[in-house]
Design brief:
The structure holds 2 protein chains of 2 kinds. Chain A is an alpha/beta fold. Chain A contains 16 helices and 10 strands. Chain A folds into 2 domains: about 1-295, Aldolase class I (TIM Barrel); about 310-415, no CATH class. Chain B is about 45% helix and about 15% strand. In chain B, the strands form 2 sheets. Chain B has a 5-stranded mixed beta sheet with strand order 4-5-6-7-8, with helices on one face. A 3-stranded parallel beta sheet of chain B has the order 2-1-3. Classes of the chains: A alpha/beta, B alpha/beta. Bound molecules: iron/sulfur cluster (SF4).
Chain lengths: ~425, ~260
């Protein structure tokens, strides 16, 4: 095999456990060079496991001086090591980009020598892309915990998104499997970059043509299911990080067993918690776009998301007093809370009912999951049931219907 | 009454014009070529007048806003005859009543129209994602596509902005035309020598850049390496990348 091919194989393989693939949220324009960042982001292809491929996701190197038990690149792991030169990383990005394979680059790295040495290399790649190649496509850079403020700040002027991974949802979990690491070294740069972003924003409100700084914001990732946190703990952390550091995204990565040396971790061969991961994304979605509060979704009495039903349905079943909802009079906020109705369909309902009361046959065609929604709403011609709906029977009903239609599978692909 | 027009968007708009002029609203717009005169007596051939088309377009813009008016063009590009009819009915309604028919999702035409609009939108997004350029020996880039709908006009601007400093050609093999960018403008090119047969043997016609195959291999390697075997989900994969697109996707080519 060609040497570059081999490096790509190793360094893409090592990078794939970072699930972030988003290429959205930037508005970098093409100024006389090549490329721009599409605000909505684009998935150029999908892996066979169904994940979006948007960015060329690579490590600069998988050499690492640390030994985090959950990570393939950990020092003690007996694997092939490789490192790209700065030029190789640049060439790959440009050639893939010009062929429309990718939206941009996701660059991360194992830590060789020390944090600053590594960060400086990463900085050279992104700087070269922007200044020499006049590349305006998307760049997501993983910053290295412990790197100096100056390096982080300079990198921020070139990249669209920055991220630092929390790795494990709680400090206690982290200490179990990565004693060298702590959450403080993640919080510090997140806070620092957020301050810079806000400062640039304030400035650009006053002065035109201020340079852009991390325009697509910051994100982080937590590994789920490696350590014993509850969903309530996980979502609390996510919620706090959204608020405190104004993160654009929190990613939940179901732990893929890769280590049998550490008896605390799920062993190789046990399945990654795909369903749980999906439920967390759905809960996260409700938090960010459906105006739910954290306590409505998970709370001390309800610490884990249910695996067999999605969190919105679960919430609805716990709140029978709010249903059924009158589709012809309820406000938008309540309509999107009906299980089986999404934001788009809710908009359609709101607009269409201006033309007259809506009947079931009309609502059915508006892209809603009617079999599910029917238990929680009524239209102009619905048969009115007296009293509160009996949630246990609704639950059984929906579950029965979904196993029959294999709906369960498709639900998992909702996002 | 069948209105037979020339297949262009202007022609379609002229059907609306004509139908108002004749106060004839039981109309089904079709292209001339697909209509057999011997079968249908009740048909009219509509000639395309750019000024008439423009008046209809301005009328639509005035009633629904400039941006929304583009939706009619998008739906037209679906080439779907039922969508044309729905579109026609909506435009007539727009002119006849002051009501905003476009938001009345209880109405069958509106619903069909909005669904088709979504499909066309999805197809152009797909094309923005699935175009795979190959670099030629003379430094240009070309790609062959076979979209479900006629979306090249909708994606030209996207590629122009993004690949501003490289020459490129995107060729729709189904509709036998392409869009060509010469680093200044995008123009349409007809009947390239790239018909189905030629594409199969494309290496004879177009000399590829010396590094082209290397980067295709690297991309294929990347595609396999980034997959996580223990999470394999073929159903989901196929839902995102339906098989009909595979033959033009570098990462899906076997070899
Ligand atoms: S520092 Fe990062 S790359 Fe190194 S072992 Fe820990 S998680 Fe892996």
């Amino acid at each position: 095999m060609h040497r570059l091919e081999e490096k790509l194989k190793i360094l893409a393989d090592a990078a794939k456990y970072d699930v972030s693939c988003s290429s959205s949220g930037s508005k970098r324009q093409n100024t006389g060079g090549i490329g721009d960042a599409s605000f909505g982001g684009i998935c150029h292809t999908y892996t066979e496991d169904g994940r979006c491929v948007s960015l060329l996701k690579i490590l600069l190197t998988n050499h690492c001086i640390y030994d985090c038990a959950f990570c393939v690149s950990r020092k003690s792991n007996d694997i092939q090591r490789a490192a790209f030169t700065v030029q190789e990383a640049v060439d790959l990005t440009m050639n893939f980009y010009r062929r429309n394979y990718i939206e941009g680059l996701f660059l991360s790295s194992g830590i060789f020598k020390n944090a600053d040495f590594t960060m400086e290399r990463l900085l050279r790649v992104v700087k070269k892309l922007r200044t020499e190649e006049r590349y305006n496509g998307y760049i997501h850079l993983k910053t290295i915990p412990g790197a100096s403020d100056e390096l982080i700040k300079e990198a921020g002027t070139y990249v669209d998104r920055m991220s630092i991974n929390l790795e494990l949802p709680t400090e206690a979990g982290l200490k179990m499997v990565a004693p060298d690491k702590d959450h403080a070294s993640v919080r510090k740069p997140l806070a620092f970059v957020n301050e810079q972003i806000q400062a640039y924003k304030a400035e650009s409100a006053l002065i035109k043509h201020t340079p852009i700084f991390v325009p697509a914001g910051q994100s982080t990732q937590m590994v789920i299911g490696a350590t014993p946190e509850t969903d309530f703990e996980i979502m609390q952390v996510a919620n706090e990080f959204y608020q405190k550091y104004q993160l654009k995204r929190v990613y939940y990565s179901g732990y893929i067993p890769i280590n049998n040396q550490n008896s605390l971790l799920p062993q190789i061969g046990s399945a990654p918690p795909v369903v749980r991961e999906n439920r967390l994304y759905q809960a996260d979605w409700l938090l960010r776009f459906y105006d739910f509060t954290l306590e409505e979704i998970v709370n001390p009495l309800h610490v884990n998301l249910e695996l067999d039903i999605d969190p919105k349905l679960s919430w609805a079943l716990r709140n029978p007093q709010l249903f059924p909802v009158n589709i012809n009079t309820a406000d938008y906020k309540m309509i999107i809370r009906i299980p089986g109705i999404g934001r788009q369909s809710a908009m359609k309902i709101i607009q269409a009912r201006k033309f007259g009361k809506l009947h079931e046959y009309q609502v059915k065609k508006m892209g809603i999951a009617f079999n599910r929604a029917q238990h929680f709403m009524y239209c102009a011609d619905s048969v009115i049931r007296l009293g509160m709906p009996v949630m246990q029977s609704i639950r059984n009903n929906i579950l029965k219907a979904s196993t029959n239609n294999k709906l369960f599978q498709t639900q998992l692909t909702l996002f | 009454m069948y209105y037979l027009f020339d297949g262009t968007y202007s022609g379609f708009l002229c059907c609306v014009f004509e139908s108002f002029e004749r106060k004839e609203f039981d109309v089904i717009p079709l292209t001339g070529s697909e209509h057999q005169n011997s079968f249908f007596q009740n048909s009219r051939t509509i000639t395309t007048h750019p000024e008439k088309a423009k008046r209809v377009l301005l009328g639509i813009q005035k009633r629904v806003s400039r941006e929304k008016a583009v939706d009619f063009y998008k739906v037209f590009l679906s080439e779907d005859r039922k969508a044309w009819l729905a579109s026609y009915k909506i435009i007539v309604d727009l002119f006849n009543t002051s009501k905003q028919v476009l938001q009345n999702y209880g109405n069958e035409s509106t619903l069909y129209f909005s669904k088709m609009l979504q499909k066309v939108g999805r197809e152009s997004h797909r094309m923005e994602a699935f175009v795979r350029f190959s670099k030629t020996a003379d430094g240009g880039y070309y790609a062959v596509v076979e979209p479900d709908f006629n979306v090249l006009p909708l994606i030209a601007d996207f590629f122009k902005k993004r690949y501003a400093d490289q020459q490129w050609l995107i060729y729709d093999i189904k509709r036998k035309y392409g869009i060509l960018y010469d680093k200044v403008n995008v123009s349409e090119v007809q009947e390239m020598p790239l018909d189905k047969h030629a594409v199969a043997a494309q290496h004879n016609i177009i000399t590829l850049d010396a590094n082209e195959e290397k980067f295709q291999r690297l991309w294929q390697k990347y595609f396999t390496s980034t997959n996580i075997e223990s999470r394999k989900n073929t159903k989901l994969h196929l839902q995102h990348v339906p098989k009909r697109y595979w033959k033009y996707l570098t990462e899906k080519k076997v070899g």
